[in-house]
Amino acid sequence: MEIIKKKILITGASSGLGRELAYQFAQKGNVKLILVARRKEALDKVAKKCQAYNSVEVKIYSVDIGAQDQVEGLIEKTDNLDILINAAGYGIMKDFSEFTDYEVVKMIDTNVIGTIQLTTEIAKRMREKKSGTIVTIASLAGKIATPKTSVYSATKFALIGYFNALRLEVKKDNVHVMTVNPGPVATNFFNIADEDKSYLKAMGDKPLTPKVVARKIIKGIEKRKREVNLPLKLVLGVKLSQLFPRLSDKILLSMFK
User: Fold this and answer.
1) Which listed site, 6, 101, 121, 235, has its alpha carbon 20 to 30 Å from 220?
2) 152 is catalytic
3) Which is catalytic among the residues 23, 53, 90, 152?
4) What is the pLDDT of residue 189?
5) SS3 annotation, 159-184
6) CA–CA distance from 126 to each of 13, 21, 172, 228, 244 (Å)?
């Protein structure tokens, strides 16, 4: 599928992977971007850079994806989308006993409920016009849980389950559903999620760069891939966990001593 002349909505577009995707779509030129995030000032900066490229139209909306009424307002303002990129979300990495009820509810509202709410309405419209692409940034943490990821992994497992089902339900309607499952990505995400850097230290590997992941995502859209999983080393770790769960538990416990 060609990206040119497509109308693309990106949530979480003010920073990290969402921002990088906006830049790389804009670099292709001749696209219409709808950029969504909570921070309007940050969105303004992203929009300005995107508009510098050839034939790129940009609209921005300040929306908290975890707030149902704000998502409803966004849905009313958007129509005829070709591509939906669900990149909004955040994580907190700590022991299960340290979470407050507010932190649990807020993470589920943002990572799961809001994403499903937005996707449901957009998918209905794509089904009616018999075309469209839906991409969701989940995580390898939605395929294998580790210590310190209880709530975050729960949200990503939920997303993978939802979008696996959605893929089957809309396939006959020519709507492409792709899930992206990266390992740690070098964004501001971990400055919030992993303040003491103990999670990244336990994982060992150098984080992926947003540019590399964004390129893989766009290539996956063009080739209509089912999933994009990376990096290879961690993907193999997931396969090991599925085949030998007891061994995987021992390895993870030794990593997170």
Assistant:
1) 121
2) yes
3) 152
4) 79
5) HHHHHHHHHHHHHHHCEEEEEEEECC
6) 22, 21, 12, 22, 40
